[in-house]
Amino acid sequence: MKLLECEAKAVLKSHGLKVPAGALISAPQEVEPALSGLGLSGGVLKAMVFTGGRGKAGGVKLFDGAAAGAAIVKDLIGTTLVTHQTGPAGEVVHKLYLEPKTAIARELYAAILLDREANNPVLILSAEGGMEIEELAETHPEKLLRLHLPIGHDMWEFQANQAIAFLGLSGATAKEFVAVINGLWKVYQAEDASMLEINPLVIDKEDHVVILDCKFIVDDNATYRRAALGNPDADKTPAEIEAAKWGLSYIPLDGSVGCLVNGAGLAMATLDLIVQAGLQPANFLDVGGSANEEAVTKAFEIILTDPKVEVILVNIFGGIMKCDIIAQGVIGATKKLAPKVPIVVRLQGTNVELGQKLLKDSGLTLISADGLVDAAEKLSKAAKGGAR
Amino acid sequence: MSILVNKDTKVVVQGLTGKAGTFHALQCKAYGTQIVGGVNAKKAGTTHENLPVFGSVHDAVKNTGADVSLVFVPPPAAADAIVEAADAGVRLIVAITEGIPVMDMVWARREVERRGALLLGPNCPGLVTPGECKIGIAPGFIHKRGRVGIVSRSGTLTYEAVYQTTQLGLGQSTAVGIGGDPVHGLSMVDIIRLFNEDPETEGIICIGEIGGPEEQAAAEYVKANVKKPVVGFIAGAAAPKGKRMGHAGAIVEGRTGTAEYKKSAFRESGIIVSETIAGIGELMAKALKA
C-alpha cells in the first residue's frame, strides 16, 4: 500500500516527528481559509500523487496570495501528471497539499528499506538530495552511505557519527538530524513500512532539519494490520480492485494477448513466452492456487473488458488445482460471455485427460494446445487471424 | 540419497486443523510421508483425522520424535509458529504460509538461525523426495525418483521442471521450492550446495526470477564449486517494471535484479540458460548425455 505525502506525514507526526503544518485542498475556494488557518499569506501547493518526479512535471507550485493559490488549484485539479515513473497514462491529480514555503539551504536524501541479502533494513543517505538518486547510485556510488540499522534500537552512536560526518553536519543541526533518523527508523518498524524515503530532507536557512517530502510504502503483507494508514486501492485501476476481490492478481499491460495463468512464476514465464512468440501481453493474471469455476469466469470477464485483447492464452499447470475444474471454468465463461476472440488453452497436471475431454466435448471452438511450445505456436497462428 | 528429507523424516503439522492444513497433511500422508501429528493449543489432547493434536510443538516433538515441522498457520501468527518450531528443536521448518509481514520474518529468521534450525520458505510449495516423502503442497504424482535436483523460487515453475524431467525419464532426487518472499530461509545457494554434495544428484535445475540478489550468489557458487551440469531459467524478462514510487529499491539492487543481468551471470558461471520454461528438461537431458 502506497501512502500519499499528506498521509505519510500524518503517520510521522503521530510518532512525534516534526513535519510542516499543512492543509489538504480539493477546491480553489479552500485556499483562503487554509492560508488563514495556517497563518500564512502564501505557500507551496503540491499535487497529491503517488509518483515521483512530480515537481518536474509541474505538480509543485509556489504562490503568494490566496487568489494566486486558488488559480493554481483550479489549474491543477483534474489534470494528469506524466512523469518518468508513471508511463504515458500518467496520474490524475485529485487533491493538493498546501504547506509553508521552506527557505532551503541544503537538500539531503534519506531512505530506509529492506536489504534482502543482509536480512536487515538499511538506511541510505546522500548529501545530494532532490536529485536523480538512481543515477547517482550508478555513477557515483561513493556519494551514498549505507548503514544497517539495529532492529528494536536507535542507530548506534558510531553510525550516527558516521552519518553526520558523511553529510557534513554539526552542532544542533546534527543532533536534530540524528533524532529525525531515529524517529523515521521507529516509524519504519512500528508501521510495517517496506520503504520510507525523504527526498529531500532539507536543512533550512535557520539550520533546522525539515522533512519536506515523504514517500511511504506499507508492506502489502501487513496491510491487514495497517489499514488505517491509507487506502490500499488508491493507486489501482477498477479492474485491479475487482480482481483482488476474487483473489486474482491482475496487472493491465499494453499488448493484445490476454492471459490467464496459475502461479506468479508461471504467469511471468508465460509473458516471456508470449513475447518470444513475437506478440505482446495485454495483462498479467495469476488466478492463484485454489481458484474455483466462479473465479475463473471472473478472470475471463476482466480480461475481456480490455478492448485491446485479440487472443487469449489459458496456461494452467494443475497441481492442487485440478484441470477439469479449470476446464469447467473456461467452458462456463466462454458460454456466458461468448468472446469473439480465439482462445488457446494449455492444460497440464492433475486430471489433465478429464479436462481436455471436457474442452473437446463442449462443442466450443477452443484451441487446445499440447504443451508449452505448441501453445506458443498456436497462439501466434491465432493472433494472425488464421487458426479459429 | 536425497537432500533434507527422506522416508525416515517425521513431520508435525502446525495448522493441521485448518482447511488447507488438513487437506495437504492428508495428501502428504497419502504420498507416504510420516505425518506424526498436529499442533493446536486449543485442541490439545484430541485427534484430527486420526492424527494426535498437541498443545505445542515442544509437546509434539517430545511425544513423536518429529524432526520436521510443516507450517500452515495464517499470516498474523505464522512468524510465532516458525520460531516456536525452532525453539522446540526441529531440524527443518517448512513454511507454506503466504503473506507473512516482512518485518515479522526479519525477526523470525534471526530467531530460527540463532536456534540452529533450517527454514524453508515461507510462501513456498515445500519439497518432495520422490517415492519417499512429500512435505508441502506440490502435486505428488508428477514426480519420479531420479537424477536431477530442482530448486526454484516459484511453485508452479517447480512443477513444470518436475513434469518435464519426469516425462524425459530423468526423474528427481529432490525438488525444492524455496519461496518467493523477500525474506526467507534456505537460499538457492544452500540448496545447490546440498545437491552438489549429494551423490544421487547428477544435474541441477535452478529456476529464478527477477528481483533480489539470489541468482547472482548462486552463479558465483556454481562457478567456484559445482562440476555437475546446471540448467538455469529466469522468469520475468517481459514483466512490466511496475509503477514504482520511490527510487530506493533500485538503489539497493541497481541493474542486478533484471532478468538480463541474471541470465548473463548464469552464463558466465557456466550455467546452461534455457530461454523458455519449455526447454529446461531437454537441456538437462542433453547435458547429462554429454
Overview of the molecule:
The complex is a heterodimer of chains A (388) and B (290). Chain A has 388 residues and is an alpha+beta fold. Chain A has 3 domains: 1-19 and 103-235, 2-Layer Sandwich (D-amino Acid Aminotransferase, Chain A, domain 1), CATH 3.30.470.20; 21-101, Dna Ligase, domain 1 (2-Layer Sandwich); 238-383, 3-Layer(aba) Sandwich (Rossmann fold), CATH 3.40.50.261. Helix content of chain A is 36%, strand content 26%. Chain A contains 13 helices and 19 strands. In chain A, strands 1, 8, 9, 10, 11, 12 and 13 form a 7-stranded antiparallel beta sheet that branches. In chain A, strand 11 and strand 12 form a beta hairpin. The radius of gyration of chain A is 26 Å and the shape is elongated. Chain A starts with a strand and ends in a 5-residue tail after the last helix. By secondary structure, chain B is of the alpha/beta class. Chain B has 2 domains: 10-120, NAD(P)-binding Rossmann-like Domain (Rossmann fold, 3-Layer(aba) Sandwich); 138-289, Rossmann fold, CATH 3.40.50.261. A 7-stranded mixed beta sheet of chain B has the order 3-4-2-1-5-6-7, with helices on both faces. Chain B has a 7-stranded mixed beta sheet with strand order 9-8-11-10-12-13-14, sandwiched between helices. In chain B, helix 3 (75-87) packs parallel to helix 4, helix 5 crosses helix 10 (280-289) and helix 6 (188-197) packs parallel to helix 7. The mean pLDDT of chain B is 93. The interface between A and B is large, with 69 and 58 residues.
